[in-house]
Specification:
- Helices cover 61% and strands 10% of the residues.
- It starts with a strand and ends with a helix.
- It has 165 residues and is mainly alpha-helical.
- Helix 2 packs across helix 8.
- The longest helix is centred in the last third of the chain and has 13 residues.
- The chain folds into two domains: 115 residues, Rossmann fold, CATH 3.40.50.1010; 46 residues, no CATH class.
């Protein structure tokens, strides 16, 4: 399975201290250079930067089709990380793109790229018995407190899926 990630799911998983779920669920995740730079360039977050640099299951990959990245950025208004993640995912025919931003997800969906966001990762971890329902609810609360937006609709869908079992 080839998995590519944008910045936000990785930041969210670090905020809830569960970046390890990426490794447990997918083995390895590839991140384009722009995503890597977004994750390691902020000097206010040295611990997060260290994790991204040191975790062997996170692989930085160069995107060679810069023309497509620039075209995507200009035509959609997406940032460099989102654009590179979409172009990389498309060019290597990844099994999954991890992305939370609505606009980026819309573009990727139109291109036929399979998607999963932070909530999907938590739900997959629940289904694999890596997290309990209570742990997921605690994670969601932590994400909300740290400024991550989770729509009421998405939160309701998550609760529904957690209570189905």
């Amino acid at each position: 399975m080839i998995v590519v990630s944008d910045t936000t799911p990785l930041i969210s998983l670090m905020k809830i201290d569960h970046l390890d779920l990426i490794h447990q669920l997918f083995g390895e995740v590839q991140i384009p250079n722009a995503v890597f730079m977004e994750l390691v360039s902020n000097s206010r977050f040295p611990n997060e930067s260290r994790q991204i640099r040191e975790y062997s299951f996170i692989k930085k990959v160069d995107v060679t089709d810069i023309q497509s990245v620039n075209l995507l950025r200009r035509s959609t208004g997406l940032d460099a990380g989102e654009s590179e993640a979409i172009v990389l995912s498309d060019s290597i025919k990844s099994s999954l793109l991890l992305m939370d931003e609505v606009k980026g997800r819309q573009v990727a969906r139109q291109m036929g790229i399979p998607l999963m966001g932070t909530i999907g990762i938590l739900l997959a971890a629940y289904k694999e018995n890596l997290l309990t329902k209570e742990e997921i609810l605690k994670c969601i609360e932590t994400l909300k407190v740290t400024g991550r937006h989770i729509s009421n609709k998405l939160y309701s869908q998550l609760l529904e899926k957690l209570t189905e079992d």
